[in-house]
Every structure is written in structure tokens, then in C-alpha cells.
Amino acid sequence: MTKLKIIFLATHQWQINELWEPKAKELAKNYDFDVEVRLCGELNDSDIKKVLKGCDGLITTWGSPLCSAEFINNYAPSLKIIGHAAGSVASITDESTYSTDVKIVSANPVMAQGVAEWSLLATLLTARNFGAYTAWHGMNKMNFPEAFNMLDIQNMTIGLWGMGDTSKHLLKLLSPLKPGRIIVASEHSSKEKIAELGAEKQSLEMLLKESDILHALVGMNRCNFERLGKEEFAMMKAGSTFVNCGRSRLTKETDLIEVLKSKHIKAILDVFHTEPLPEDSPYYDLDNVILTPHNAGFPGRDRFIPFLLEEFQKIFSSKKIQSNISKSRFLTMTKEAINYSA
Amino acid sequence: MTKLKIIFLATHQWQINELWEPKAKELAKNYDFDVEVRLCGELNDSDIKKVLKGCDGLITTWGSPLCSAEFINNYAPSLKIIGHAAGSVASITDESTYSTDVKIVSANPVMAQGVAEWSLLATLLTARNFGAYTAWHGMNKMNFPEAFNMLDIQNMTIGLWGMGDTSKHLLKLLSPLKPGRIIVASEHSSKEKIAELGAEKQSLEMLLKESDILHALVGMNRCNFERLGKEEFAMMKAGSTFVNCGRSRLTKETDLIEVLKSKHIKAILDVFHTEPLPEDSPYYDLDNVILTPHNAGFPGRDRFIPFLLEEFQKIFSSKKIQSNISKSRFLTMTKEAINYSA
Fold first, then answer.
1. Quick one: which of A97, A288, B215, B307 is 20 to 30 A from B50 by CA?
2. Residues B182, B199: contact at Cβ < 8 Å?
């Protein structure tokens, strides 16, 4: 029996360093996969054809080529599965990909765990009003009058905008904290499905008005682009916290900065219109904002490829996989180009 | 049938404001309890006798009188249950209390939820290395080089020193995060009991050496008093984080400050030898320390008395209660006087 041939087509050396880790190598060995790791930049058109010839599985990541039906037919006609070692597959597949027999999986469920952890942390920081009184790494003293002005999670309303992998995982992490109420705005999940997961389906407007903390976790599409502006932020509950570790372009950033300046709401942000955030960003002057440098989904990268290889093995042995991306799922996924750089 | 008489003997008005809340009043009404709320300071010896005469239940809190067997026999001979609306009962009972038929319960399981939440937050801050790169409330800019230097919780070793209500609840909160390894040092819980809760029994020495984060959650007793000093801190894993929201006197504070100055470890602290922490405390100058003002257990106070009334109702209707404090449990509880002030 010939070994199954898998190509990992990376675009940067750091991707190989972070993703092609001992755990992944060991698993490939256990499954007797023949994995070849290549950098796209080193390959011309005919090299790619040679490299992909006869391959059964392709691992892609940030910056990998678009695997359209044409690409697959021309370069990798024997391909059975594409595994994307990153989040959204919107940059590496298009509608034509889904007309082929190639299965598509993504490490998004693994990355979502890291993003959900960050979101849990943001929730606890908000409930505890942590920024307002904590002495933080030698930069200030404790602010006692603010120290008992906090929320009890068991009485808190948590709003989740979007019901993708991150929201689903966040619901699991929040569950033992017994939040007072979790309300979800989603175009794609039914009332019943959301209720099954322990939350309540509501409109985005209701989320804005009633959430003590609002997590923007929805995918980007034409309808959501700059969806939150001046009017929406004004609707938000006074003193509540807006949290964004998803897509910056869900908001009008100048409006967000204005409402933060007014102190109507607070924010915890991991994503920005310009990244890295410029040194002179007005966010830096706000004492009601906590900023992290687009690293919410960072932990667990060494688990991306092992997750994909497990899925490959299931496909190769004709078992059912959970994380297969369907055409309809693809159409709801974030279309925004991911500006990720090492 | 006469109403059951319950006295809430508070020592400060803020305790009444925070603890005798609508939820508690409503539950008392539902159970048809006759609850009288009194401030100790307003009562002389003969008043106390009058107030406690014929009472079935007594609610105590921080600063309430010691309910020894003598106190009970003299002042409240009909007493069936004492419910402590705070944590450790060490200040309101002594060994003689446990020779009477009076049952003792404490709101400690409720307070432990709040402390465990704070401990979960400390764990996430540590895993994410959050203090090292986050832009925090307008005080600094993001430190990019540190931003990808974080731990994956799924590979992390978490040490819990002590296996009381807080550790037990923390294990529940950590469970969906799938920590790599949780090791527990406890004098009172068996290897089997700890394994059942998803952790691994180890020596305190092993916890010091192997934990990426070490939570001091053990009760104070003669053996633990200033148990962690220079030698123990030196044993700790380089770069690991010491977390204390329990008892400050578990450590030699000057030794903790020295090891923090050396940058061998980091710390997140809620308790201090002197509280409130003096303005000139050396902790304030350390850039590897996060400080909170002894408020880890603050949330959920409005649930203390409802929890106790539920327990009272069980006792009065001869049902079994889960949280009854036995003499042996009492002997393991923190003996340190709790310096709590509003």
C-alpha cells in the first residue's frame, strides 16, 4: 500500500515553525502519512504542479493560494481533502471549490478555543471592573473607591453577536460560572438551537440595549460591514463593555472612539482598522479601554495540524467528520481578507 | 404553628445593606421565617438575652460574637442552627460549640464561588502573559515583542495548594479549558478524592517546582503560618506566577517581595500583611505584579443569606444538608482572625 501524500503549502517560515511542530510530525508518522512541507514563494508554476502531483491531502494556511476548482483540476487532480491550518477558509476557497469532490476542513474549531478563552478573560475583567481599581504592573496604585463597584456574573447579561465556533466554545467555558442571562443575535442559528446551547435568541438591537458585555463574534459579510456606528453605540447600556476580538470592520472605528471618549461605554479590543495599531492611536489615551495586539487566537497553534491530520485520517478511512465545511457554511464565513502578519 | 424565629446579628450597617437584600427577604417570607435584624453594638448583655430568647436560628457575620457552648446555653438555649454569612467560622465558633446539638453552616461555598472566579481570572491573565504587553486603561502602549510569549492552558501545569471549597469550585471552572495538568497539595484530601475531581495529589515541594501558576488556597494553621519563605520561592519554576487571594500570612511577605524584585517569579495578589496596602508598599513599584484590594470574594453577597435560609429550611424540616460543618472540618478551617473592614 502506498503512503498517502500530503503537502503543507506555507507562505512564511514562521508558519512552518509554529504549525509543523513535534506533535504534528509524530501524528503524521503514526498515520503513515508522507508529509512534504514547502514554501510557496520558492515555487514557480511548474514546481507547484510537480509538488502537488498525486497528492491526496493539502494543508494550507494564511496566504496560501486560492484553491478554486480550476486550481484543483490543473494542479492536484487526485486531491481528496484540503485542511486549512488557520481560521476562515474564505481566502483559500471560492464557490467553485465546493463544486468539486474535495472535502474542506479548517482548524477554526481549534483557533476558536483560544479566541473563546480570550473572550472568557474579557468577560471576567468586565464583571470584576478590573481595570478601574487594580494596581497593574507597577504603573499605578489601587483605586479603592472603585473596588467594590463590580457585577456578579450570576446577575449579568452577556450578549454574543454571532453563533460560530467561538461563541459555541465560549458558551461551554461560561457554563460553570452560571451567568444570569446570555442573549445571542444570529442570522444562521435558530431560536431552538440557541436555546439548546443555554442561551436566548434576540435581535442585535436588544443585545445593544440589554447586555452588560457585548462580544462581537459574528462573521464579516456585506450586511455586517461597519454595522455598529454612532447610533448603535448610543443604544448600548450605560457603563457596559464592548468587546471585539473578531473583525474590526464590524464597527465604524471613529464612532467607537467617540463613544469611548464620552465614557458612555468601555471596551476591550484585540482588532483594529490599522494593524499594528499606530503609536498615536486615540485608543491609547482612553482610560476605559484595554487593548491586546490581535493575539486572542494565538494559543494552540501546535494543535492546528494535528487536528487536521485527524480529520484527514477519517476521510481516508471513509469515516464521518464533524468539521467538514459545506457550501452553505462557506457562504456565511468571513469574506474579509485576513491581515495577519508575523 | 408558630413562625420559626431567626436573628441576624450584624456588627456594621454595611453588612445589613449588603447581606439583607430583597432576595433574602423574599425567601424568608416564602419560608414563613420571622427574621429580626439587629446590630450587636446597640445591644447590652441583657438585650442580647432578650433578643435571642426563643430563637431557632442565628445568622452571624464578620465580627459577630463567639458562639461557644456557654454562649448558646446562656443566651439562646432553643437555638438549632447557626448560619455564618461570611467564610470561615473560626471566629464565631470554638470546639465547645461542636459539643452542642446546634448545627453550624457557613456561606463559604457561596463566597468560594467568587474567590474561584477571581482565581480563574488570575489563571487566564497568567496563561496569556497579559500584564506584559496589554495596553491598560490609558497608562501605557502595547508591548509587541512580549505579545506572543504566552502559555497554552492545554499545556500548562496549574498548582492548587489546599483542597477546600474554593479549589473544588475552581476545578469546575477550569474543567472546560482542559488544562494540561492540575496538581494539588492537601493534608486533608486523599489521592483518590483528588483524582476524582480531575487533579493529581502532589507534595507542596513538587507544586513549587513544577507549577506554571501556583494558587495558595489552603487554610491557615500553625503549620502553614509563613510556610512560604525565601527557600520555597527560590524553588519555584522560573517565570511562574504565585497567586494569593487566601491568607497573606501563608508567606513571609519580605521574602516574597525580594523574589519578585529578582524577577524569578511573577505574582497576582489580593491579600497583604497590612490592609489596606500602605501607599509606600514596595509591591507598587514592581512591574511583574498585579494587585487587587482584598475583593476576590466580593461578588455574590446577596446570595449568602438566601443560601443559609435554604439550609435552615432543610434543618427545620429534618432534611439532610450538604454544608454542615463538622468538628473535624472546623479544626482544619482558617484560624487567622479575618481583618475585614468595609
1. B307
2. yes
Q: Find residue B158's DSSP bridge partners.
A: B182, B213
In angstroms, the CA A37 to CA A150 distance is 51
Q: Which residues contact B323 (CB under 8 A, 6 or more apart)?
A: B105, B106, B108, B109, B311
Which of A150, A295, A307 to mutate against chain B (most B CBs within 10 Å)?
Answer: A295
Q: Alpha carbon of B30 to those of A93, B35, B82, B167, B301: distances in Å?
A: 61, 12, 20, 33, 20
Q: From B132, which residue of chain A is nearest by alpha-carbon distance? A: A137
* CB-based contact B150 A299, cutoff 8 Å: yes
All residues of chain B having their beta carbon less than 8 Å from the beta carbon of residue A138 are: 284-289
Among the partner-chain residues A124, A147, A298, the one whose CB lies closest to the CB of B121 is: A124
Neighbours of A206 (CB within 10 A): 16
User: What ipTM was assigned to the predicted interfaces of this complex?
Assistant: 0.92
The string of DSSP codes covering A27-42 is HHHHTTEEEEEEEGGG
Q: Whole-angstrom Cα distance, residue B90 to residue B95?
A: 10
Q: Which of B88, B19, B95, B83 is nearest to B316 (CA)?
A: B83
| β A181-185/A157-161 pair status | parallel
Instruction: Calculate the CA dihedral of residues B85, B86, B88, B90 and round it to 10 degrees.
Output: -70
Give CA–CA dist A179/A115, Å, rounded: 19
Residue B81 phi, psi dihedral angles, 5° rounding: -150, 140
Task: Choose the closest CB to A136 out of B139, B147, B152.
Answer: B139
Amino acid in the structure at residue B208: L
Question: Which residues, including other chains, have CB under 8 Å from residue A317's CB and lie 6 or more apart?
Answer: none
Cross-chain Cβ contact A298/B140 below 8 Å: no
Q: Amino acid letter at A201?
A: K
Cα(A101)–Cα(A104) distance, rounded to whole angstroms?
A: 9
Contact A162, A216 (CB under 8 A): yes
State the DSSP code for B181: E
Q: Running along chain A, 342 residues long, what does each successive block of 10 average in pLDDT?
A: 90 95 96 95 91 95 94 95 92 93 94 97 98 97 93 96 96 98 96 97 98 96 93 98 97 98 98 97 98 95 95 90 83 55 30
Nearest to B136 by CA among A138, A290, A126: A290
In which residue ranges of chain B is pLDDT below 50?
337-342
Cα separation values, A173 from A165, A166, A179, A303, B151, Å: 12, 10, 11, 19, 18
- CB spacing of A135 vs B288 below 8 angstroms: no
- Residue A289 is placed in which grid cell? 479601554
Helix or strand holding residue B165 (H, E): helix B165-174
Compare CB distances from A131 to B124, B137, B172 and report the shortest one's residue. B137
HSE, side-chain direction, 13 A CA sphere, residue A89: 30
CA atoms within 13 A on the CB side of A342: 12
Beta strands A289-291 and A266-269, pairing class: parallel
What letter would DSSP give residue B317? T
Phi and psi torsions of B218, nearest 5°? -85, 150
Handedness of CA B94, B99, B100, B103 (dihedral sign): positive
Q: How far does Cα A321 stand from its chain's mean position?
A: 20
Confidence at residue A329, expressed as pLDDT on a 0 to 100 scale: 81
Cell 497539595 sits on residue: B185
Contact, A307 vs A110, CB < 8 A? yes
Number of residues written out for chain B: 342
Contact (CB, 8 A) for A8 and A37: yes
Cα–Cα distance measured from residue B242 to residue B228, given in angstroms and rounded to the nearest whole number? 11
